[in-house]
Amino acid sequence: MSTKNFRPFNLKKTIRPGETIIQSLLFVAGVLSIMITITLVYELGKEALLFFNNPDVTLAKFFGTTEWQPGIGKYGIWPLVTSTLITSFIAMLIALPLGLAAALYLSEYASPKVRSILKPILEILAGIPTVVYGFFALLFVTPILQSIMGKDNISVYNMLSAGLVMGIMILPLISSMSEDAFSAVPRPLREGAYAMGATKLETSLQVVLPAALSGIGAAVILGISRAIGETMIVAVAAGSGPNFTLNPFEAAETMTGNIARISGGDLSYGSIDYTSLFAIALMLFLVTLVLNLISQYVVQRFREQYE
Amino acid sequence: MENNVEPEYAIVTNDLSIHYGSYTAVKGVNVKVEKQKITAIIGPSGCGKSTLLRSFNRMNDFVPNCRVTGELLLQGQNLYSKDVDPVEARRRIGMVFQKPNPFPKSIYENIAWGARINGFKGNMDELVEQSLRGAALWEEVKDLLQKSAYELSGGQQQRLCIARTIAIQPEIILMDEPASALDPISTLRIEELMQELKKNYTIIIVTHNMQQAARASDYTAMMMIDDQRSGGVIEFDDTKKIFTRPKDKRTEDYVTGRFG
Amino acid sequence: MNPNKNHFPEGDAFRRELNGRYRSATIGEVLFLSALLIAVISLTALLYNIVDGAFGYTAYEYKVDPSTITSKPLNELTQPELVEVLKANISKGAYNKLNNEQAMETRSQADLLSLVLERIIRIDTKAVWSLSDSLFHKTEIEAEVAEKYPDAKLEFRTWLTMNFITAPMSSRAEFAGARTAILGSLWLVGIAVLFALPIGVGAAVYLQEYAPKNLFTRIIQTNINNLAGVPSIVYGMLGLALFVRVLEPLTSGSIFGVTDSNGRTVFAAGLTMGVLVLPLIIINAQEAIKAVPDSLRQAAYGVGATRWQTIWHHVLPNSVAGILTGTILSISRAIGETAPLIVVGASTFITVDPDGLFSKFTALPIQIFNWTTRAQPEFHAIAASAIIVLMVLLLSLNATAILLRNRFQRRL
To answer: Is A69 strand, coil or helix?
Structure first.
């Protein structure tokens, strides 16, 4: 091959149909997720609208009464909401302190070796299917609660057991997000505290923890969102049948539990039972969407703070 | 140093060495740091200046498998003997870091926190004001005490860090390149502040800025790395002597800018 | 000079306070560690609870005395003799049905024996004990059985057996198996991956390699992150409305001429699962693609490659392990999902294995749910066994993912 030869070439743009087609296909794949969200909102909204357009259903009944039995004309959403809130509250009561403490230990105290043993345990907890947690709640935690409190004081299906186990389920989420937040706190901040003669506990609780507060906030919000949307634990252990009560020792069905039970039965399209499920699902979707958005926003802001 | 009166020493080291595992980072340091003077540690990057400084208040406790041999004497007590409490030691030996690292709290809390954890009983407002005055920051922030420390400029943040250090009333203040992240004007203010502080405190400062060492310090320790990559103090003397008539050829090369 | 000096405790006073601070520090550390210990204990209790339920004594009676059917002890009957016993004692229709499922002559002796037990002798379980009770309270159990169920046999039973894994469903816990459910889960995962993997990787490639940095891209990204956080039961509702109802002609197979099904097919459920794992696959694939160093792309462009050539020959091959790891983790999420399957209409009782896209289905977690919520303790025992099967499945998936990840990390 001679390098001296002059070989003419053309630098004009060439159209490569293959490239264009592939790029279009990839674009479609990227946009599909938007289509999913739109379809989700459309389908949930359409059926939920059918529910609310039913002449029998009024917002006054929906928010103003406390019995939920759409099949027989009772449209008060409160029993489902209260039980959802109670189980989620109990779950967070367990998950938040334990998750924070676990994260503090892992990020501030544990040696790499101890960490490499303890951390996978949390990861295993995070990977256990929720139906298995349901089994655990109903057949392990509930009997223990009953033997502590007496069978007369706590029913076989109760919100306490479901909430406690849900707390264990959410613990790894809180702990790993908080740990991320702690490790984002710059090292010099800790050194500053130690150089003032602070102990490890004083540094952890009074410097690292406050500095990571927004990251922890994001974890809490996401944890609440997870608790509200969790289905199988409450479907198995919290009881079936809406029950307007604030007593965690009683059985009460959550929003998700209601969807699972009613949709698992015989359901005819377009019936009030059918559309009512979409009304609940839409509420679930909107609440968790808002919570997730806030959480994401907070995490992002938190990252920027230390970058 | 041929005084009739033996000067009082804040820190005396005897063959102090710092090891990371099998690697010796700083070898055989013998210095006597005089009270209420400013002692500068200078030397090229990576020669172990910061490592040595951090060993003076046991900040190296947080580095895994870091080990210190030899003696580091404060008022005759070896900082590294087993019965010494590192937390109490750090209270007596404050530290200001390379980058300002105020706590994400209010200006007031930044100063009050260290005093509070150390059991301060008295008028906190007064202490905060005094410390801020001591760090020449009071006039600038007296109306912003409840504002976040992050709203201050870098130079102000660094003076806040000095203020919170003097609030716990240490004997010695260690400064690890305290002005390296600051603009020239802020740097000058810190240097002025150091002259003010040495009336009450012993100051040890690590700096890579030769002029700063020459301007601000009374004594200078010159560090250099040997062929095993271990740092050591090759010359320790009056700052004037170090910069005008150094004994060691390497010091001369370094201070006149012929090195590296 | 410093009037405040006296306000700081000095000497012994400082020491006393410091000791107090150290005490709190120790208490704090112990408390933090105990949070982790609670997690460890919970996990241990959960695993114990499962294993405890899957083995143990049962007391059962025969509804029909075996001696009225055959003169020999049951387990000594040969294969042809068992076929005869079956022929003689169950209805012709039931016999033919069994024969159609699998010809009698080809069935094993053990299989036939369990058929005889299930259909003719009929076991009536009186009581079930957990493994721990069986081990530590054997004499009490024996005494209880002798008193309450004098006719019952007491037998240590391993509920999780090979037969449990290979047998189809049964309405009797003693004979029920998980085969239909395991196959259902595999079908679901297969459909979900075939749907979500290409789209997910495509979306990830688009977002990482093509998408301009603008508002629209940010919306797509935020949307994907949000979809990953939508409760799974809401995906179930989407599946119910979209795949089961609106797309019924497709998911029931009626446009392909399948007539005997409605929209509640394994296909509809698999697509629902696919939508559910899609955001996870996209996010994981994005991470994998992000990890490919830019220098590699620049090298490819430098020798005159087009964008797609660069992606196809360099970016994707170098991120394939990461993408696969993410996919496996998504599968293990999907395989444990229960709620959306309930909503899209998994069958609670079905003895026929899924044999195509348009068959009815059940899945392992669905059976765990059903069996757990039954009142009889023998169903809890098979629920525990099914959980063990599910967990072993998950464990092997995760082990594969970790192996892949390790290989991946070594390469880069």
So the answer is: strand
A23 touching chain C per CB within 8 A: yes
> What are phi and psi for residue B39, nearest 5 degrees?
-110, 125
Mean pLDDT score, A192-219: 93
Q: How confident is the model at residue A6 (pLDDT cuts 50, 70, 90)?
A: confident
Question: Quick one: residue A8, left, alpha or beta (phi over 0 = left, psi -120 to 50 = alpha)?
Answer: beta
Q: Between C2, C13, C18, which is nearest B87 by CB?
A: C18
Burial state string for A131-165 with b = 16 or more CB within 10 A and e = fewer than 16: bbbbbbbbbbbbeebbeeeeeeebbebbbbbbbbb
How many domains is chain C partitioned into structurally? Answer: 2
* Domain match, A31 and A134 both: no
In a domain, C121, yes or no: yes
The pLDDT value given to residue C169? 82
User: CA C234, CA C276: separation in Å to the nearest integer?
Assistant: 10
What mean pLDDT do residues C52-76 have? 82
Residue where a domain terminates, one of C158, C187, C218: C158
Question: What is the token pair recorded at A299?
Answer: 């995490």
The lowest-confidence range among A6-20, A271-285, A289-303 is A6-20
Minimum Cα–Cα distance from A109: chain B residue: B62
Say which CATH superfamily domain B2-255 falls into.
P-loop containing nucleotide triphosphate hydrolases (3.40.50.300)
**B98 contact residues in A (CB cutoff 8 A):** 188
Better-scored residue on pLDDT, A12 or B203: B203
Q: Mean pLDDT across chain B, nearest whole number?
A: 90
Q: Which domain holds residue A181?
A: 62-304
Tell me the one-letter amino acid at B113: W
Interface mutation target, options A196, A200, A204, A304, chain B, most CBs of B under 10 Å: A196
Min Cα distance B66 → chain A (Å) is 15
Q: Which residues contact A180 (CB under 8 A, 6 or more apart)?
A: A215
> How close does chain B come to C32, measured CA to CA in Å?
19
Residues C258 and C323 in one domain: yes
Q: Which of A188, A197, A199 sits opposite B97 (nearest CB)?
A: A188
Distance (Å, whole) CA C188 – CA C271: 8
**From B85, B87, B169, residue closest to C5, measured CB to CB:** B169
Pairing type for strands B172-176 and B93-96 reads: parallel
**If you average pLDDT over residues A28-40, what whole number do you get?**
94
Q: Distance (Å, rounded) from C-alpha C175 to C-alpha C116?
A: 11
- Helix runs in chain B, H state only: 49-55, 86-92, 107-117, 124-134, 138-141, 154-167, 184-197, 210-216, 239-244, 249-255
Q: Which pLDDT value is given to residue C408? A: 66
Which residue segment(s) compose the domain that C103 sits in?
54-158
Quickly state the pLDDT bin for A264 (edges 50, 70, 90).
Answer: confident
Chain B partners (3+ C-beta pairs within 8 A): A, C
Q: Which tens digit of pLDDT belongs to each residue from C261-273?
A: 788 899 999 999 9
Specify the 3-state DSSP secondary structure of C157: strand
Query: Per residue in A108-131, pLDDT tens?
Result: 999 989 999 999 999 999 999 999
Residue ranges with strand state E in C31-171: 55-62, 123-128, 153-158
In this predicted structure, what is the pLDDT of residue C89? Answer: 80
Whether residue A45 is found in the same domain as residue A67? no
Q: Is residue C367 part of a domain?
A: yes
Same domain, A66 and A24: no
pLDDT tens sequence across C200-211: 999 999 999 999
3-state secondary structure B144-209: CCCCEHHHCCHHHHHHHHHHHHHHCCCCEEEEECCCCCCCHHHHHHHHHHHHHHCCCCEEEEECCC
pLDDT digits (tens, 9 = 90+) for B166-178: 999 899 999 999 9
Neighbours of C210 (CB within 10 A): 16
Structure tokens at C217: 């891209």
Instruction: Identify the chains in contact with A, defined as 3+ C-beta pairs within 8 A.
Output: B, C
